Amino acid sequence: MQFEDPADLSRVCTERLGEKAGRQFAAMARRGFRLIRSTGSIPATGQCRLGGPALLEPETRWPEQSGVPLSLHAVLDTDALAAWLGNELPIRPGLLNFFYLDPDLPYEEYRKLDMLESEVCRVIPADPARAVETTAPEPARSYPAMPVHAAEVSMLPDCWDVEDEDVEFDRDQHWGAASLILGEMGDLDGNTAGSHCAFGWPDTSYTLKGSSRDADGPAVHLLQLAEDTELGWGWGDAGTLYFTIPVKALATGDFRMAVAQVLCC
Question: Which pTM does this prediction carry?
């Protein structure tokens, strides 16, 4: 659920859920962005883009898995995003390059791989002052470069990301907090799983492995990439690719801990 105005978010939550539960649910909102193709009237946000060459520091090696190079899917310019994110971005990593194993590699290339989940993706930061455009080596795919505008939004979690202790509800009327949210907020879900988004909450009714809770709460959502025929990528039937990182890893800038997961019909 995405709102351009945080005040509208709070108002809708209290109207739908009641004063106390509404405040509790609204407090779970996170700041994020819809990534929209830049045009003449819609400027790109910093160096944010989908596809194109990577922006890496000169000494950084192109990431690979068992000798097979990963494909660059997106670059986020966190300096340009930091003002809206505020405390939700505890560090300033500069540019973030998002890599994932090309799903259309020839079968013989896949046979070489030890398919560990932690190694099919990389998120590599780079200093904007030192970063240079770096072209993908073969057989990694190079997607067309698409500069994007990061539209500021406030995001509420999906009902399945809400735990029973997060929101007060009538236990005689609802079997859990998810039942309350689904029943009262369901028509506002917005279903943005077909769009590209950054930070905030991932738009999915399925549990992401990276979003499971630990002592620090849910993992931080970094990037959501939908199927895109213009760019030429897709992941199964209406698949969406999600990148997440543990809270502590983001706080220390350890992007080696980022993971990616594909969810599809």
Answer: 0.88
